[in-house]
Specification:
The structure is a single chain. The chain has about 450 residues and is of the alpha+beta class. It folds into three domains: about 220 residues, no CATH class; about 100 residues; about 60 residues. The chain has twelve helices and eleven strands. Helix 7 packs antiparallel against helix 8.
Length: about 450
């Protein structure tokens, strides 16, 4: 997102450029410190021209730049060299969404002639060997970790998208009225030199501008800088949403396994398990709502140029179908957890009813057998010849009377404890998920 490299004025969406610009977007895993200060809003950091008003009203949803740094071009090195290209400018930008998802952008400008074959090789190298990109003598992510101090180690995610904004001769070739060479040029760039197709994918052309893209590479020629930055922002949203979808899918499977393999021995442990599972599902729902749905529609930049690219890229990624499937998975997890919670509440209610009945029965029995202690107390309190005033009430002579009074109470206490413990253990049956019901076999000969 290097400013000042595109021709054209702010009033025009079309323009020309001298340098070929390539922006490589990487999704990153890991988390940054929540208290880390940002660098202001996107609008304050990059030029979005007439789109700035839309972005200003949506600042709370947009990613925030946490690192923007120009680096010496000679320090940015790929695993197989520069492929004969002249890297003139290089900038690193790290963007974090409100949910903490991180995207790394490498903004590179190439001077001089940029042959499509060399540029395709550079694109392939920066994508497939991204772990081997270095900044000076240090691996790129290690250099970023030193600048960002993340809470968790940074690592490259699965998703990469590269935006090519041709300049110079390459731009002229792509916008040439003679379209005979166009399919070959676009396919070489979009497929990074690895695949040839008869028609360029997702091609839109109006004479002065051109856009075409696949899943991993976009080519946009003839646009002004603020439009380029808007297209980059759309791609950042798509990359971030795709990374959240993949993370959500994995987390949903982990929650399912935690539900199936949970081990607990008391209702309190079951309640704790349900609370943990519910908290996990709530996070999944927030991720789907604010990490995916917020970036896959045209509400952020309601402009035709952006809407067309966003819709086309979303279809290429298959985000809509993935979002619908992930949402259904989370809904079913919610249903399973709700069913377990309802079963626990029903079991606890039944246990409390059994315990109340047991206690009521014990009280009734205690009332019935309270007569012997009453008679015993009356016996000692009576002025009878069998009660010797010179003997202690703890004398062994009175042992049969004590046994008659207290043994029934001891028996009652033991029976009550056994019954209560047995009722408590019955609630443990909720911990075992019900066995799946086998599907009926089709009748023979069908």
């Amino acid at each position: 997102m290097i400013p000042g490299t595109a021709g054209g004025t702010a009033a025009l969406d079309s323009g020309t450029r001298a340098l070929t610009r390539v922006v490589v977007l990487f999704s990153l895993t890991g988390r940054l410190e929540a208290a880390r200060p940002g660098l202001g809003s996107l609008v304050d950091t990059f030029d979005f021209g007439r789109f700035a008003l839309h972005l200003t009203s949506s600042e709370g949803v947009l990613p925030v730049p946490v690192l923007v740094e120009d680096v010496p071009p000679e320090q940015l090195r790929l695993s197989h060299g520069d492929h004969g290209l002249d890297l003139a400018t290089a900038q690193i930008a790290v963007l974090a969404t409100p949910r903490g998802d991180i995207t790394l952008a490498l903004d590179c400008g190439f001077a001089g002639h940029t042959p499509p074959a060399a540029l395709a090789a550079w694109l392939a190298d920066s994508c497939f060997d991204r772990d081997r990109i270095t900044l000076g003598p240090t691996a790129l992510l290690d250099a970023l970790s030193g600048r960002l101090a993340p809470r968790e180690p940074l690592a490259f995610g699965q998703n990469v998208h590269q935006l090519v904004f041709p300049g110079g001769d390459l731009e002229s070739d792509l916008l040439d009225p003679d379209e005979s060479r166009l399919p070959a040029l676009l396919n070489e760039l979009v497929y990074r030199g690895r695949l040839t197709a008869s028609e360029p994918p997702h091609l839109r052309r109006n004479g002065r501008t051109l856009s075409a893209h696949g899943r991993g590479v976009s080519v946009h020629a003839g646009w002004a800088e603020h439009v380029e930055n808007g297209l980059i922002l759309v791609a950042v949203g798509m990359i971030s949403a795709l990374a959240v979808l993949q993370r959500t899918r994995l987390a949903a499977f982990e929650t399912m396994r935690a539900n199936e393999q949970a081990s607990a021995s008391s209702p309190y442990e079951i309640r704790s398990l349900i609370s943990r599972l519910s908290a996990g599902v709530n996070e999944l729902q927030l991720d789907l709502a604010f990490g995916v749905e917020a970036y896959v529609d045209s509400l952020l930049i309601p402009e035709m140029v952006m809407e067309a690219f966003q819709s086309s890229l979303r279809d290429a990624f298959g985000i809509r179908d993935s979002l619908d499937n992930s949402a259904r998975m989370v809904e079913r997890l919610t249903s399973v957890i709700s069913a377990r919670s309802a079963a626990l509440n029903a079991e606890l209610s039944e246990r409390d009813d059994r315990r109340d009945r047991t206690v009521s029965a014990l009280v009734a029995i205690a009332t019935l057998i309270a007569l012997p202690p009453t008679l015993l107390l009356a016996f000692f309190g009576a002025n009878a010849t069998t009660v010797n005033a010179h003997r202690s009430i703890f004398d062994a002579r009175y042992l049969p009377a004590y046994l008659l009074a207290w043994v029934p109470f001891l028996v009652l206490a033991v029976v009550g404890y056994v019954r209560t413990a047995r009722i408590g253990r019955r609630s443990g049956s909720l911990l075992t998920p019900p066995a799946p019901v086998p599907a009926p076999r089709p009748p023979s000969g069908s």
